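Hi,

I'm pasting everything inline rather than attaching a file, because the server keeps stripping attachments. The sequence lines come first, and each chain or strand is labelled.
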Amino acid sequence: MPLTFSFLRPPGVVSEQEFRARCISCGRCVAACVFHCLAMTPDSFFGSETPKVFHRKAPCYLCMKCGPACPTEALHKVPMEKAGMGMAVLDRKRCVDYQQKWHIMCWTCYERCPLRGTAMVLENGYRPAVTNACVGCGVCEYVCPTQAISVVPTRLREQT
Amino acid sequence: MKPPLLFWRRGCQALIALGFIALPLFNARGISVIAGNLLSFDFFGLSVVDPLALLQTLAGGWPAPKAMAGAALALLIALLLGRVFCGWMCPYALASEIVFAISAKRRAHQKTVATLAHETDIRPFMVRAAVAGLGLFAVLLFLPAPYLNQLSMPGWYTRALQHAAFFGLPLYGALLFPALLLLEGFTGNRFWCRYLCPQSVLLSLFAALPWLGLRLCFVRKQCGCAQNDRACLAACSLALNPRKITLAHRLGCTNCGDCVDVCRSRGRALRLSFRPFP
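And the predicted assembly:
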């Protein structure tokens, strides 16, 4: 089972509180997004629409075009290493690279990670592992064939 | 003969209203030299921001220096050209004026003129200012997000079209737009623009500064109408009295020019001018 069933905020959000106070629903980040991974959906019944990344449908590839487009700095202009969207968690019991019986070297998450080599590394040279440099873009969760990876949004980690 | 101001104004309003139908379709296909909605849009690198939207983020304690120039630009336009956003650009005003024209036809002309009770009254502006002030105060104290944007009708219009173009889904909150129009059709007065629209408050304040920028001028000695000939008053859909340019008038006037058009054949006592009349 995935750890969370939720969305991610776009890259460059410092805190959920600040983001919600600053976002004016202009949608310029959505227009700037090259990969069409941002969706504007209402936060609540009377709430305005704010941009979200539903990473299981379309993950963020960290093109970082949305930050400069935001007029009110709800999304800060940051380098991709500081996107701060969340943190991926790898379930080693599900990952085929950790299951010796299958003799498979999948590496899909490692190959597709925008921060390959820093956020996603190969432990002992052949098993993928998530490091603290992970920014939670959701690509690994999207591509994993066995649903072994879940991204915990920064938004939820703030609340706990 | 020169076409009336209404011709140009309708053209401008229609261009904006249709432009914001086409714009999200282009944006969704990656063409984004102009992008956004009427809360904030990027125009060939020039960022324009709704001043009230920015003020709410400031009231929440979050400074946004990048947006300052965009909001200042909107206010500068209000200072130099008056409330032309409301009169010449706002898609809700276009729809509201059409509804007003239809509902006015239903009523007797006399009755329409008789409703002009507040023609020199500052109350409509005070109500609008109270709505905006309470909203800002709420953001300052407890609201987590700029909820006054939810009362922006041009915002809803453009947001709904944006939503439909990008995600192919309706935005149910935008139903407020036709609901208000329906209500205005029954009441027959443009109550939203006159009494409630919080977005117009800052523009009104900047447009009310006298002797600066494009303003309505009335030259009494050129007025050839009888005292009870209220053609210019009846022409104003916002129930203002163009013959008494007081503070109340300046706060309510959108420089639409409807009264000027009526006055063209009656002595040209009313004009939109950058300089005060002698």
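DSSP finds 14 helices and five strands in chain B.

If the labels don't parse on your end, tell me and I'll reformat.
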